[in-house]
């Protein structure tokens, strides 16, 4: 168990440290990060305390301001004890993308998307990132607004072009989402479409599963098993939800679902011999109400706990029960593992790795939140934090 924990890492999102809101408003926090330097400092803090968050996903438009080279930003990350992880282009915020990016009927929008992806890949090359993580807001709001089939072709063409231009060191992750911001149709609405687009794009394109991007009731571990067996699973964006893409803290609503996802990955690897080491885990949450860093620490430690619980499942016993069609016994294998208190094992791992036994307590004792809150407020001239989200 302890050794397995050493293999577990989860990437932090730079945007999770900044003030965010809903379309109804935004509640600002004094300690929220507003620059990439602040985001990397916060991520470094989370990694120092948890030992399992060595990389940070970055958003191109929000994190690479004019006048700062990508290598300078990578140096800041290194100084903070983390590295730059996946590169997330922004194909949704510019006015030119009003009717979509890769799928837009407007050739100017498609050209702008090409240009932004070129820039994102150059950044990826410069900072040594291994993933170009693509999420598209592309879609339409009304029946008849655009030709859906034509948009599918445009997406296929764009992804194939980008795949060909991608540095050898990178892989392409294709994320799906059923709705929002498009409310009639979304060009990559589900995992099947993402798998199709990834296959068409080329061998280095894989599907990214954001746990919040499913219609209610979807069986995510089924999707995960399916994609792994097709060698098409590239990674995850973890968050929890009750209704839609709520971006709540991992495991806060349905920890059993996360446990089942980790178990599906373990079964595909251990029982069926599929490669699972390349599957990247990333947090994709936006904490509107919780203090950002505490929420991230909570997320990372919860992820470790649920991962460990999935390692506790007695696979031999499970297989025997399945072969005997002993449903109650099979399910009990899962429930027993899920009910196991793995926190003592985690504390032991942390002790052995020179980490604080209780990262959240250690964070509170450090006084970091109050200190950076005061510094950041002062730097902003007393103004509340400004968000990287519009
Ligand atoms: C979209 O909802 C998403 O999940 C994508 O991954 C974006 O990159 C991220 O949220 C942040 O906007
Ligand atoms: Mn996401």
Question: Which helices and strands, and how do they pair?
Answer:
Blueprint: H1 2-6, E1 12-13, E2 21-22, E3 25-26, H2 36-50, E4 55-59, H3 60-63, H4 70-79, E5 83-88, H5 107-127, E6 131-134, E7 139-140, H6 148-165, E8 171-175, E9 185-186, H7 191-201, E10 205-210, H8 220-229, E11 233-238, H9 255-271, E12 280-283, H10 292-311, H11 315-323, H12 327-339, H13 343-352, H14 359-366, H15 368-379
Parallel strand pairs: 1-4, 4-5, 6-8, 8-10, 10-11, 11-12
Antiparallel strand pairs: 2-3, 7-9
The chain binds alpha-D-psicofuranose and manganese (II) ion.
The number of helical elements comes to 15
Helix content: 40-55%
The structural domain count equals 1
The tally of strands reads: 12
- Structure class: alpha/beta
Q: Major sheet: size, sense and barrel closure?
A: 5 strands, parallel
Rg, rounded, reads 21 Å
Let me know the average pLDDT.
96
CATH superfamily: Divalent-metal-dependent TIM barrel enzymes
Task: Describe, in short, the structure shown.
By secondary structure, this protein is an alpha/beta fold. It is 47% helix and 12% strand.
Which features does this protein show?
binds alpha-D-psicofuranose, single chain, 390 residues, TIM Barrel, globular, 15 helices, 3-stranded parallel beta sheet, alpha/beta, 47% helix, binds manganese (II) ion, 5-stranded parallel beta sheet
Structure description:
With 390 residues, the protein is α/β, with parallel strands linked by helices. Helix 11 (315-323) packs antiparallel against helix 12 (327-339). The mean pLDDT is 96. The protein has one domain: TIM Barrel (Alpha-Beta Barrel). It contains 15 helices and twelve strands. Strand 10 (205-210), helix 8 and strand 11 (233-238) form a beta-alpha-beta unit. The structure holds alpha-D-psicofuranose (PSV) and manganese (II) ion. Alpha-D-psicofuranose binds next to loops. The site of alpha-D-psicofuranose has 9 residues, from loops.
């Amino acid at each position: 168990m302890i050794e397995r924990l050493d293999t577990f890492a989860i990437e932090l999102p730079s945007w999770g440290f900044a003030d965010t809101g809903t379309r109804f408003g935004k509640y600002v926090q004094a300690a929220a990060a507003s620059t990439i330097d602040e985001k990397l400092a916060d991520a470094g803090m989370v990694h120092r305390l948890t030992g399992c968050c060595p990389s940070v996903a970055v958003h191109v438009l929000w994190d690479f301001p004019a006048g700062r080279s990508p290598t300078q930003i990578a140096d800041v990350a290194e100084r903070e004890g983390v590295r730059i992880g996946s590169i997330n282009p922004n194909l949704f915020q510019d006015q030119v993308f009003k009717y979509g990016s890769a799928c837009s009927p407007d050739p100017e929008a498609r050209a702008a998307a090409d240009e932004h992806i070129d820039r994102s890949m150059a950044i990826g090359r410069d900072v040594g990132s291994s993933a170009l993580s693509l999420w598209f807001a592309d879609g339409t709001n009304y029946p008849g607004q655009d030709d859906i089939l034509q948009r599918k072709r445009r997406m296929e063409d764009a992804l194939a072009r980008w795949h060909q231009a991608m540095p050898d060191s990178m892989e392409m992750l294709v994320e799906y989402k059923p709705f929002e911001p498009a409310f009639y149709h979304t060009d990559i609405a589900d995992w099947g479409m993402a798998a199709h687009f990834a296959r068409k794009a080329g061998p280095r394109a894989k599907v990214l599963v954001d746990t919040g991007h499913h219609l209610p009731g979807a069986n995510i571990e089924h999707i995960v098993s399916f994609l792994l067996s097709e060698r098409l699973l590239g990674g995850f964006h973890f968050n929890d939800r009750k209704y839609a893409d709520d971006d709540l803290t991992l495991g806060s609503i349905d920890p059993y679902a996360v446990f089942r996802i980790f178990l599906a990955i373990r079964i595909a690897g251990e029982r069926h011999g599929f490669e699972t080491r390349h599957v990247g885990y990333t947090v994709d949450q936006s904490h509107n109400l919780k203090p950002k860093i505490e929420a991230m620490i909570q997320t990372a430690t919860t992820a470790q706990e649920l991962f460990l619980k999935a390692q506790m499942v007695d696979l031999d016993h499970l297989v025997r029960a399945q072969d005997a069609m002993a449903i109650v016994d099979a399910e009990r294998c899962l429930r027993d593992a899920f009910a196991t208190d793995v926190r003592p094992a985690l504390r032991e791992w942390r002790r052995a790795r020179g980490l604080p036994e209780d990262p959240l307590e250690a964070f509170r004792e450090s006084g970091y939140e109050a200190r950076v809150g005061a510094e950041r407020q002062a730097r902003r001239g007393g103004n509340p934090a400004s968000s990287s989200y519009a």
